[in-house]
Amino acid sequence: MIEREETFAQLLGGRGAALDATLPSIAFVAGWLLTNHSVGWAALIAVAAAVVVGAIRLARGGKIRAVLVGAFVVSIAALVALYTGRAIDFFLVQLLSNAASGLAFVVSWAIRWPLLGVIIGALLGQRTRWRQDPDLLRAYGRATLVYAVQYGIRVLVFGFLWWQGDVVASGIARVALSWPLYVLMLAPTWWVFRATLPSDHPGLRHPRRRLVSGTDPG
């Protein structure tokens, strides 16, 4: 039996992590508005928010590497905005990172190493055993393409708003396209798994051990 959708959602990351990632952006926009469009103060407030979020995550048992990466990304975004003097450039890092992530997901499907399988397999402690299952490999491949759509949506929206120079709308989009978009894309991604895997398949946690030579993951 295939795992419940809630379990699948937990494997890919929970609401808390998605919301935590948006708080520094909200802080940046709020700081920019409250300080008469001061990029310096907005950047400082965003970094401070990232530090607070990181401290809370650590207190709740979060991994220090994830906390450091989050703080690093926010710091880079703040430095970019400070360097250019344009508040909208704070969102340039997220635009580029989403473009890179979307490309990585598509390329991983093309080379038959779908990233969704790599990520979930690692979280389940399976390493690459899922690749020995042709059905699971095919399902991960198709689901990876569907999951990549969210990155394409973000690139289109963030890119347009960056081009328009709309700081406030970019902050709103940062929130709207995090957890809400993730939830929206979860349903079709999970549907692909259900439609691709045979009815007697034991599920994501139990890959079948079969040779995959010549298997098409798409």
TrEMBL record:
Which residues does UniProt call coiled coil?
none
Name the UniProt key words of this record, in alphabetical order: Membrane, Transmembrane, Transmembrane helix
Which residue windows are transmembrane per the record?
12-33, 39-59, 66-83, 103-124, 145-165, 171-193
Pfam assignment, any one: DUF3159
- What highest taxon heads this organism's lineage? Bacteria
Looking up InterPro entries in the UniProt record yields:
UCP010219
**Keyword Membrane in annotation:** yes
Q: Which named protein is this?
A: DUF3159 domain-containing protein
Upper lineage is: Bacteria, Bacillati, Actinomycetota, Actinomycetes, Pseudonocardiales
